[in-house]
C-alpha cells in the first residue's frame, strides 16, 4: 500500500476536494465508509474490487494523506509532498 501526503497541514478543504474527486473520477466503488475520531480527524474509505483508497484528514499528524493499494496518482488533488511504500 502506498501513502501519499497531499497537504502538510490538516486542511479540510483539501480533504473534501480529494474525496469529491475520487467520487467523480473513480466511480464504481462497492462501499464507502466515513469514520470520525474524537480529535476531529476524519477517514473516508472507498472499497473497489481491485483494492481500496483511504483518504485521511489527520489533526494529530497535521496532514492530509491518501493510502491505496492501487495506482491513483492521477486522482490526487495536489502533487504529493511525500510518497511512502
Q: Which structural class do the helices and strands define?
A: alpha+beta
Largest sheet: 6 strands, antiparallel
Number of separate strands:
6
Query: If strands are numbered along the chain, what order do they take across the biggest sheet?
Result: 2-3-4-5-1-6
Order of helix and strand elements from N to C terminus:
EHEEEEE
Mean pLDDT: 93
- Helical content (DSSP H or I, runs of 4+): 10-25%
Approximately what portion of the residues adopt beta-strand conformation?
35-45%
What is the count of helical runs? 1
Report on the structure:
This protein has 85 residues and is of the alpha+beta class. The chain has one domain. A 6-stranded antiparallel beta sheet has the order 2-3-4-5-1-6, with helices on one face. A hairpin with a 2-residue loop joins β3 and β4. The longest helix is centred in the N-terminal third of the chain and has 14 residues. The radius of gyration is 12 Å and the shape is globular. The chain starts with a strand and ends with a strand.
Write the SSE topology.
Blueprint: E1 2-7, H1 12-25, E2 31-36, E3 42-48, E4 51-58, E5 63-68, E6 82-84
Antiparallel strand pairs: 1-5, 1-6, 2-3, 3-4, 4-5
A few lines on this structure:
By secondary structure, this protein is of the alpha+beta class. It has one helix spanning 12-25, and strands at residues 2-7, 31-36, 42-48, 51-58, 63-68, 82-84.
